[in-house]
Amino acid sequence: MSKILLSNVAKRFGDKAVLDGVNLSVDAGESVTIIGQSGSGKSVTIKCIIGLIRPDSGSVRIDGEEVTGMGDRDLNRIRSKVGMLFQGGALFDSLPVWRNVTFALTQGKVIAAKEMRRIAEENLERVGLDRTILDLRPSELSGGMQKRVALARAIAPKPEIIFFDEPTTGLDPIRADVINDLIVSLTEDIGITAITITHDMASARKIAHRVAMLYEGRIIWEGPRERLYDSGNPYVDQFVQGRAEGPIR
Amino acid sequence: MKGVQALLIVVGRFMLQLFAAIGRVTAFAITVIWRGLTPPYYPARLFEQLARIGWFSLPVVGLTAIFTGAALAQQIFTAGTRFNATSTVPAVVVLGMVRELGPVLTGLMVAGRVSSAMAAEIGTMRVTEQLDAMATLRTDYYRYLIAPRLFAALIAMPILVLIANGIGILGGYALAIYKLDFNSVGYLKTTRHYLEADDFRMALVKSAVFGFFIALMGCYHGLKTSGGAAGVGQSTTQAVVSTFILILLSNLLITVIAFG
Ligand SMILES: Nc1ncnc2c1ncn2[C@@H]1O[C@H](COP(=O)(O)OP(=O)(O)O)[C@@H](O)[C@H]1O
Ligand SMILES: [Mg+2]
Question: Which residues of chain A make contact with B132, given a CB cutoff of 8 A?
Fold first, then answer.
């Protein structure tokens, strides 16, 4: 059984059809990367999976359970298995770093502060940060640091499934590779199921078991990462080689 | 004929939009109250908001009240000299402050401070996806963010208004004693004589209603923010303007209907 299964997911905003029948199946322990142009609906796709956006039609299943139209209680049960890194980080700017990182464990309450600070420190280390920033506010951090704190927040509750929305965007190549290694170790060593959105081809080649390309509201190609550079698909070719000319206008 | 028709269409459309908006706000209010009254509760958030709304509004509310009370005393005195009724100064100051100016001015000042801040803060959280993030971290932002603000405003406003009333009366008293040569003992005696429980009841009802609108509009416009920084600015303006209108309108209704 697929860990995550999207069938014919469609979503429009106003008269703009953003998703137009997305089909995607992800097995447990698999790492799938979604590539595609900016504005092609990659973020909308994962927001549909996690129940933040309700698709107009189609079905989203996690562990066989239909997520679309689920009530708050069931949705929270599903979300307890899921971590999410938002594209912009989405850190709570009124809370210090350590409370951000442990928010899923405390639900925003100040409980077991000592233990929580320890957990925060542990998770910050995994993304290449240290305890010196525990008490800083997100606004006092650089963009790249914010992204990594957000990543620490996503992995802190030890989810079974993680969605990474552009985890390496805005990081220098070395820090980006630390994140790539982290994602690989999460999937290889712990067996987490991951969906990663990225424009970073080096990252895609390193972390993905399988790559899917979203174009005009559909998955137009998917295949193992080894095939990414000889997919035989002109759209994928143009995208991965970053050419201005080609079928994508 | 054509002109009348066009006008009716415009008016009709406006009324429909108005009723739709009232419906949405009512549904929102019911959701917030219901979720706020069911667990999990966030008492720490409530106290935080009480401090922000109540405590930190004290300076501006106090200033407004003392100046208004003094100005009111002077106005009544000036008007009173025209028909030999300067002795009404203490009575009019106390009634005017407690029943009308205390609640309304406090409401407007707190609206300017608090509604706008709530709309800006929650609006920013909306456009930066912090609210979505909170939902994925299994925390209901209605309970965590909205309900504490609503309940805190509901509690803080009556207290602020009571304080404003006291300070306003004091302002009028000070001016009357030091500038208008009133007798201190006599002034206080008249003040006490004219003040009834009903006046305080009215002040408390008004201030609770205003507090409710202040937080409701701030949060409502914050939550429905879209479109980046410009959207946040727009929500802030809308929050303040709609709160002002609701305060002035409900003030009239309470004054005329409930206590008229
Ligand atoms: N909440 C929303 N309301 C209206 N339009 C939206 C919303 N979220 C996304 N969109 C639109 O959907 C399209 C896809 O957005 P997104 O999934 O963020 O793209 P990307 O592939 O770059 O992540 C964009 O045109 C965006 O403007
Ligand atoms: Mg995106």
Answer: 47, 52, 86, 90
